[in-house]
Amino acid sequence: MVEIETYGCAVNQADSEAISGILTASSLLGADVTVVNTCTVKSPTESKILRRLRQLKSGGRKVVVAGCIPAARPAVADEFPTFSFIGVNSRDVAEAVRCAQDGRRYVNISTESDGPGLPCIAGNPLIAIVQISAGCLGSCSYCQTKLARGNLKSFRESDIKDKVEHAIVEGAKEVWLTSQDTGAYGLDIKSNLPSLLSLILSLDGDFRVRVGMMNPNHALRMLDDLVEAYMGEKVYKFLHLPVQSGDDGVLKDMNRLYTVGEFREVVSAFSKLNVTLSTDVIVGYPTETKEAFENTLKLIEEVKPDVLNVTRYWPRPGTRAAGLKPVVGSEVKCRSRLVNALFKQVGLERNSRWVGWKGKALISEVNPDGTFTARNDWYKPIVVEGGRLGEKVNVNVIRATYYDLRGETT
Q1: Topology of 3-108 in CATH?
Q2: Can you tell me the mean pLDDT for 383-399?
Q3: 312-331: per-residue pLDDT in tens?
């Protein structure tokens, strides 16, 4: 039986669902092969994956390596001469698995991602992960994903609509629109994200759309239309808008192409919708001084995000920032602890406002302890004990933590 191991973001999850669909259509799921879909965004994640590959190698397992590591660093194939390798070209996984199964090696590493037309098998039948574009228009000084995914390639609106429509017919209740930067969608094909959302929201069915990460510079150029699109009842009021640093000097060094003020402008425009704000920060970038770090803390205190993804800076091979003098490791750890401690306060403050809220929420996940996670229209995670997957329940929020809400079904 083929085992598919997935690391990384929603785009990688979508790729793994396509890999599963391709192997099913090719009657290859019974092959005794492991497909490892890799991620290269962080050094610890890459190290974990490489340890896993060495473990599979020592166990004599037949392996196909896919995803961002081989796409960004093709020389990794030389480290595992018995494994087969593809990159983000999921369409080639069937041939790679056939070769691995027969004891032959297949190596065809590409950075060209596939469109939404590939067959897929959803990991969660209630959630359709739909990739709307591949690559990006950025050139961030620290990012290796650009090496793996390349420049922006937006997929056709009609193809995306067809995939979403098919998923809804098959029972999906959530549609996750994902890419390296959803805000850049359409810039290469004379379209844009609000236009795509309008098309998707015209579809019949009881579903909600979650828009994936977008960078502030792209959100800013279409801000009014974007906010109007988010007003649609089928759009989760959830905004993933990474800032990465609260200091303009560091943002410039990162080549992030926006300012802290522009980030604030986008957040302010969406405040009328009371959106759930998710943002990302990187601590310990080589040019981040103590004063610059303090500016990041001040920004978090000011905007009070509902979700905060904190990453310690790690030099990635092939990036411009890799050659800079690093901040001392102990200082980076200290800054990471300070940011996380601050967010525990901010997150609890934000979530406490929801205590006493009553309304509808969709049960979309089963938790390891047997409870369920339901999501309301603001995409807030509400842990409940009663109900069943796919059911919309009436919820009364009775308690909050810094990362979720706890509720009772009524």
Answers
A1: Rossmann fold (3.40.50)
A2: 95
A3: 999 999 999 999 999 999 99
Q: Which pTM was predicted?
A: 0.94
What residue type is 95 in one-letter code?
E
Residues 6+ apart with CB under 8 A from 142: 254, 282, 285, 313, 315, 316, 319, 320, 321
* CATH number for the domain formed by residue range(s) 127-352: 3.80.30.20
Q: Is the pLDDT of residue 29 over 90?
A: no
3-class SS of residue 216: helix
Q: What is the DSSP letter of 123?
A: S
Q: What is the largest CA-CA distance in the chain?
A: 61
Beta strands in 111-245 (DSSP E): 127-131, 133-134, 153-154, 174-178, 208-211, 238-240
Q: What are phi and psi of 42, to 5 degrees?
A: -125, 145
Q: Mind listing the pLDDT tens digit for each residue in 257-275? A: 999 999 999 999 999 999 9
Task: Indicate the domain borders of the chain.
Answer: 3-108, 127-352, 358-409
> Which residues lie across from 373 on neighbouring strands?
365, 383
For 130, the token pair is 């739909």
Distance CA 336, CA 343 (A): 11
Options 3.40.50.300, 2.60.40.10, 2.40.50.140, 3.10.20.590; CATH for 358-409 is 2.40.50.140
**Band of pLDDT at residue 115, cut at 50, 70 and 90:** confident
Separation CA 14–CA 113 (nearest Å): 11
- Residue 293 tokens, joined: 């770090």
